[in-house]
Amino acid sequence: MLSVRDLNVAYGDFIALHGVSLDVDEGEIVVIVGANGAGKTTTMNSIAGILHVRSGEILLDGEHLERKSPREIVERGLVLVPEGRHLFPEMTIQENLLVGGQAARSRRNLRVNLAAMEERFPILGQRRSQAAGTLSGGEQQMLAIARALMSEPRILLMDEPSIGLSPLLTARIFAMVQEINAMGITVVLVEQNVVQSLELATRAYVIAEGRVVLQGGAAEIRGHADVKRAYLGEA
Amino acid sequence: MHAALIGQLTIDGLLVGGVYALSALGLNVIFGVMRIVNLAHGEFVIGAALLSAVLFERWHANLFVVLPLAFVLAFGLGALIQRAFLRRLPEDLASAEATSLLMTFGLSYFFVGAWLTFFSGNFRSVPYLTGAWTLGPFSIAQARLAAFVASGIIAVLLALLLRYTALGRSIRATSQNVQGALACGVDVERVRTLSFALGTAIAAASGCLLILIFTVNPETGANVTLASFAVIALGGLGNYAGTLVGAAVIGLAVSFTGYFATAQVAQAAPYVLFILVLLLRPAGILGKSGA
Amino acid sequence: MSAPLLEIENVSRAFGGVRALDGVDLRVNQGEILCIIGPNGAGKTTLFNIISGVMRPSSGDVRFQGESIVRWSPQRIAAAGIARTYQIARPFARLCVRDNVAVAALVHERTLERARRAAQDVLESVGLATLADRPAGSLTLTQRKRLEVARALALRPKLLLLDEVMAGLTPTEIDTMAAFIEQLRERGIAAIGGVEHVMRVVMRISDRIAVLDFGKKIADGTPAEIVADSRVGEAYFGTSLDDVGAAPPTKGHS
Amino acid sequence: MRRTRLQVIAAGVAATAFFFVLGGPRLAASAAEKPIVIGASISETGAYADSGKLALQGYQLWVKQRNAAGGLLGRQIELKTYDDASDPATAVRLYQRLIDQDHVDLIVGPYSSAVTASVANVAQQHHMPMISPEVASTAPFERGLTEIFQGIQIASDYVEGPIAIAKEKGFKTIAVTGEDTLFPRSVVAGVDDLAKKMGMTVVFNQLYPHNASDYSSIVEKMKQSNPDIVIAASYLPDSVGLLRAMKQANFAPKLVYEGVGPTELSFGTQNGKDADGVMGTGNWSAELKTQGNASFVKAFTSTFGHPPDYHAAANYASLEVLGEAVKRVGSLDSAKLRDQLATLTMPTVMGTYKVDPKTGIQQGYKSLVLQWVNGKQFVIYPKALAQQPPSLPFVSWSTR
Amino acid sequence: MKGRTVIAFAIVAAVLALVPQFLNGYARSLLYITVLYVALAYAWNVISGYAGYLSFGQVTFFGLGAYTTAISVTRGNLPWWEGALLGGVISAALAVPLGYLMLRLRGAFFALGMLGLAQTLQVVANSWQLTGGGSGLFLPPGSNALPAYYWTLAIGLLTFAATLFIDRSAFGLRLQALREDEQVASTLGVQVTTTKVWAFVISAIVPGLLGGGYAWYLTYVEPVSAFATRFDLQAVAMTILGGIGTVWGPLIGGVLMSQVSEMLAAQYPQAYLMIFGGLVVVLLVFLPRGIAPAVSAALARHRARAAQGHR
What we know:
The structure holds five protein chains of five kinds.
Chain B: H1 2-34, H2 41-59, H3 63-84, H4 96-119, E1 132-135, E2 138-141, H5 142-164, H6 166-176, H7 178-183, H8 188-213, H9 221-235, H10 240-260, H11 263-280
Antiparallel strand pairs in B: 1-2
Helix pairs in contact in B: 1-5, 1-6, 1-8, 1-9, 1-10, 2-3, 2-4, 2-8, 2-9, 3-8, 5-6, 5-8, 6-8, 9-10, 9-11, 10-11
Chain C: E1 6-15, E2 18-28, E3 33-37, H1 44-51, E4 59-64, E5 67-68, H2 74-80, E6 82-84, H3 97-105, H4 112-126, H5 141-154, E7 159-163, H6 171-186, E8 190-195, H7 199-205, E9 208-213, E10 216-221, H8 223-228, H9 230-237, H10 241-244
Parallel strand pairs in C: 3-8, 3-9, 6-7, 7-8
Antiparallel strand pairs in C: 1-2, 1-4, 4-5, 9-10
Chain E: H1 2-18, H2 25-50, H3 59-76, H4 80-102, H5 107-127, E1 137-138, H6 146-168, H7 170-180, H8 182-187, H9 192-218, E2 220-221, H10 223-226, H11 230-242, H12 249-267, H13 269-286, H14 291-310
Antiparallel strand pairs in E: 1-2
Helix pairs in contact in E: 2-6, 2-9, 2-11, 2-12, 3-4, 3-5, 3-9, 4-9, 6-7, 6-9, 7-9, 11-12, 11-13, 12-13
């Protein structure tokens, strides 16, 4: 479904990605793990069109995305839940959701989707006219996910959804990822919480220094010695 | 008698404050979305003011014709400037902010020169609604009241646009979090262009109203820019409600210092207030806290 | 036992309503390596900002060599011997690598020429000497991290604050960095490292570990004590440390 | 490396120097057939643009008429002007350019006191006599300069008229204001003494800055002082602004005098009916029975499509004087011209030109008080020249 | 190397000192204005180019210098150059507290604060008895522009030397470090506030000194022209054209632009503002680093090629 080929991205003189390639099949949960600064977020932002790609290809169902604007990419059903949530803190929860559902592909269902989200995340319904900035960390993350779902994505990119959350909340987020996947939405997940994310993923990629250093089935990656050494703290 | 005088000065100050508020709102919309401090803002205000003066002189075109015209022209001009220049700000100079400052500083003088060419250096005003209504001990200048009411209507329309339309939500979303807006598929480039155009158009609208009260020439733009910034500095950058409070304070300060001190002090009042506010809240005015 | 090099006493710091730090106490002795671990947002960077004078605490005191430094300017603190690195490397992008370091060397050297020479020496020691004339903006992430350290070293610090110095490094580089930090101990430089992950290294190099969680210090002890502390595992990893396979400390400082 | 750079710089400096040297001395015109060039800078843009344009047209008309009548000393005349944008530094450079670069034969003054004050020094340095048709303030003439001559009425005369009229009507209290620049200041400088002499009191005296745009506060203050008459030393934009603020404050004293603003024709177009009753000091009027005035007005109107004002007249008169001086001297010798201008007495459209030979301060021209009545200007003072008596008191705003 | 610099410097200074002897008054005047603008651009470059604090109000000190001189001459009977010197001293003295206050502001707010400061001082000059209010002050008419020229030339050369020093000294390195990242600079031991206040003082003292020459040259000082922010526009445009934060930028940009501006000012005074303003905008899009870096790069390439040829 999504195919990334030989992606190169640079910030000024600094090269952040050296030829990253990924494949995601329909219905999968693919997890990308790697250390801070390894290039995970850069990869996600590049796919979503937020970063300018120096070279390489990004194909969604065979269509090139690498020169498309973020808006055009959203219209094709690929939506990012960015790292750090990036909500609109002074807008109400409902307004946040409305902005999320503004894409042409979902606009006619705007009210229906809004109701659906308020039902799925009751807290968002109860506080719909409260400013988003007043929500707690976990609630904000839910809002960020709900906002992304408003545009009826086919493939959802989630960048570190568990960041800064307590174990309990992290578990809820992961459960939600599975639910979303069960709705038929393909998920690409970037996580630092390697252990838990590998549990729910079908496949995984390990990124270091802007390169894919390992890839394979989730279980396989879990068992890999290098990963244990680098990210799980084993000698 | 004394109470009546205070009342009169208050009325005069608040009515002018309405126009300051409108100009500052335009500046605030641009800053909110683009993070650009537009030093050429006053030039757009003055350009529209001079245009309406000239149209009035020639054809007695009244405010209600000129304001929409100036609004549309300025909207186009703003969009053009954003597309042609501001969007192409290079990123390799000291900082994006520095470059945008230098660029809008250049733009401001470009337009001073342009207005001097088109309108000459004459001081102009529009002798429209020159009378006053008497209300008890107070006299209410028709032009001031008209400008105040019109400013209020435009401000309310702007508020409605920002709150209840998809474009308005996109503008607010972009000004609060660009990354988030991008992730939601908001066409941020378009929003930036529209915001700059809208801010410029509001500036023009305030210019059409300002000329009912003030006498201006092409070189008075910098005063308007500074006064508008003083309003924002007082009210909070990006804070639309605070803008109204700031404008009232500036209007009153000018009106009262003009009476109790001298016209020179009144002229300096916005700058002095501006500098004082900056010094008392050097970082704080970026914050959205406060009124 | 001599007085501690750095004492942090009941330091709190609030942003708006949020308490980023809440009554934190910490001590660092001469030549000691202390690692502060905790998830993103636990307050590590805030603590570094307060020690280095970039930020004032809302309450509490920080003493360096017995003197309170909470009212000192960052430059005074730097000159007194506390150097820091930034979590996200912040090179002076348009200056060359050598001049980046020379800025710091100027604290001890009178002339620019001598500062540049001193800078060159420091660059040698961190392996950046060949890049000395390049603009710092063109360095890779790893090189930037090293430049951060080089600049801090040029201040000839007694205490080095390393904010997420391991972040973004490959396993090999992490080993190099760890070796470097251990070598600080031999040179008599104390260090506080802020670390989110990379437990393996933390356990190996630390004399002591402190754990921050939501602005509070929830544990402070030798690596062995920390591993044994169940609260730490709960708060930080969502599970016990044994489950994630954290290695026992390789150095017996207990 | 350093040497290369310095070579580049040195070469640059040399080239620039060369440019200046080359650009400097040009071969002086020798042939007598060449036209006599008169140079001036005028404020075509900037704060004084309106009046500057009329001033320039005054110069242009005289040159045109003179050339049609055979020129001067048998040569045609050419006017060379630049726009100084009302900026003194620019004007200084432009006059130097006119004298050193363009090698003009004669110069005449620019517009506005501030500009003239700086330019006078250039005239002095180059020993080029210069008539200043626009500087009513005497300060620039009191600096020991020998080359400048005032071609307009002196400012301190201006308020004599309105105060005399007020005295006659028995008005007692005066509020004084004006723009805080050289000329308006000199207009109101003597007002305290004059009022005392006339047995009147000044109840308010405060100036407002150049570039002021809002006059409501100062008007409110004047209103509070409750004066019989208002004397404002103002130019066109501020006189309009003040009048409007007075209307808005519903403030109508018994006599309103607004300096030179009301003498400009656009004062009427900008204020409409509100202009009625306002007085101002004119230096000139189309109705004036001075020598050649009627034909001047006619020629001006047919040439430029609009009637002249006092700027045009004063500038025209200055060239009349300069032309006469050249004719009498019989050459362009500047020392002789200087002496001639200092002692010359002659009739012009402005009246009789006559200056104090020591300072060059004008003594001949007399100022007039004009008043707007039913959309037209009339001379009301001095009585000998009055077209009609003053229409007083000023009509209250509500009964218009 | 050092000796050669000094000799070259002396030659350039001597040429510039001798040139006016061969010029008419207009060309002298033009030369004076060119040197004046270049010197002002150099001063602006210190605070805005090297320290990174964009100021649109350095004219404040220029006006201050002009007024100090005019007051000293007319009311104190001092020789004009003593007044001008005093103008420099007062500017420096005022720049210290002002620097401490204003430099707490960053970016746009510093820029706007300085703009406001210039406007405020203009109003002060406009309303104070000492400054003659709106009437301004007359200086005794001078014989010619030469003394002002030499004064300005001397200060210009000193300012250039100061820029050379800044570019090659510890002070300059600290300035550039704080321009890049003020917080990091402070944690690396840079006395941030002191350093930038010094830069501000240099950028104030120069226009403060130059203002006196200008007053003497014009023989008349009044508020509007003494505090005209156009002076800052000129400095900005010239420095950007030449190269902001470089040693040669203000010189290259200043010499080029004053020629252009003189040609334009005589015929199209309003278009000249348009062209200056427009040029700033266009340069920022197409040549944001200015001419100087482009020239150095070309020179470096040329030298590299030459060196290869030799081998």
